[in-house]
Amino acid sequence: ETGVTQSPTHLIKTRGQQVTLRCSSQSGHNTVSWYQQALGQGPQFIFQYYREEENGRGNFPPRFSGLQFPNYSSELNVNALELDDSALYLCASSLSLGGNEQYFGPGTRLTVT
Amino acid sequence: GIQVEQSPPDLILQEGANSTLRCNFSDSVNNLQWFHQNPWGQLINLFYIPSGTKQNGRLSATTVATERYSLLYISSSQTTDSGVYFCAVVFYGGSRLTFGEGTQLTVNP
Questions:
Q1: Distance, CA of B74 to chain centre
Q2: pLDDT tens digits, one per residue of A6-36
Q3: Are A6 and A107 a contacting pair, CB within 8 Å?
Q4: Residue B43 to residue A43, Cβ atoms within 8 A
Q5: What CA–CA distance (Å, rounded) separates A101 from B4?
Q6: Quick check: A45 contacting B, CB < 8 Å?
Q7: Are B48 and A107 in contact (CB < 8 Å)?
Q8: Which residues pair with B107 in a beta bridge?
Q9: Count of CB atoms situated within 10 Å of the CB of B18
Q10: pLDDT tens digits, residue range B36-91?
Q11: CA angle A106-A108-A110, nearest 5°?
């Protein structure tokens, strides 16, 4: 059974650019959630996808957007990057919605200069 | 507001000591997870424990849902236990994990 994978591992971008992060969910999981973790803080919920539809969004501006594909993998897109977007981006997958256990990928560390 | 609070924020131990980490949450939950974040940032699942008690080796956890708290016990700590421990919950009716601010554990040899 393959766990949650994310790519790339690290990324350096310039303010104003756009970035796409990718996540492959664990086998059999149809729900993917994205979290942003700033240095020294707990992860913050960005949004969640269930069967290709967005199911809930945290307190993030519209320049944070996402997709989920028929194989349940997912993308996180961030437009017009700002310095404060520098963070660890974590993807988690679960069997379904609700209180199911969530399993995290290794994360993508984004640095915006 | 709805929140998750962890204590203590920092904990320094000598190898072999025992410790208890606490997580308080403000409302009913249908998921509570404990994680250990490794130095590379990955969140390692320790326990899925919305209620009751579980044990895994030197680690155990108890959640008292009616009183809205959970405890993570680490016995005979080792230097490899060092890192940040997070408690996260899914409040009843939702699907998103809400994290506490974590406990930074340092185990000295």
A1: 10
A2: 999 999 999 999 999 999 999 999 999 999 9
A3: yes
A4: yes
A5: 17
A6: yes
A7: no
A8: B13
A9: 11
A10: 998 889 999 999 999 999 999 999 999 999 999 999 999 999 999 999 999 999 99
A11: 155
